[in-house]
Amino acid sequence: MRRIRRSLDNQSATTLVHALVSTRVDYCNSVLAGALKTTTDKLQCALNAAARVVSNTRKFDRGLSQLLHDELHWPDVPGRVAFKLIVTVHRCLNGRAPNYLSNHVIPVSAIVSRQHLRSAEQNTLVVPRYRLTTYGRRAFSVAGPTAWKSLPVALDPTISDACFRRHLKTVLFAQQHRHHSV
Description:
Elements: H1 2-7, H2 10-26, H3 37-55, H4 64-71, H5 77-93, H6 99-102, H7 118-121, H8 140-149, H9 161-181
C-alpha cells in the first residue's frame, strides 16, 4: 500500500479512499446503531488506515484522531452512524422518506394524550418500548428517536436538508470533541 501511495497525488488518493473505503464504511451503517464497541472498532480501524493513506502518515504516528477530525473532517464510526440515523429521522419528519420508515417516527405532539407535555413543545419523538435488549434498542423505531433526542433543542427540524446536515455535522463534531477531551 505504501508503494501505491507514493505514486498518487493527494487528490487522487483522497478520491480513491472515498470510493473504496468510506462508502463501504457508510453503507448500511445505521444497522450498527447501539452495536458493541468491538464491532464498531473493526470499522474504525479500516477508517484509520484510510486516513493514513490520505495523509501519508505511518501506522504508529501520533495525532491520528486529530487528523481525522480537524483536517479530514471525518467523524468516528459511532458519529457516522448517529449522523445517518438523525438525517433519516429528519427526512421522515419532513416527508422525504419512505412510509415504512416514516411510520416509526412519531412526534410526541401527534399523540393526543401527550400534547400537554413539555416534550411535545420541544420536537421530541416517541421512543417505543422494546423487549429484547440486544436487538430491540437497535431497531430504527427505537434508535432513530433516541439519536434525535440527543440533539440540542436549538437544531430546527424544519430547515432544508442540506442546511440541517451541515448544522448536524457541527453539533456531532462538538459532541465528539467533548467526549474525546474528557
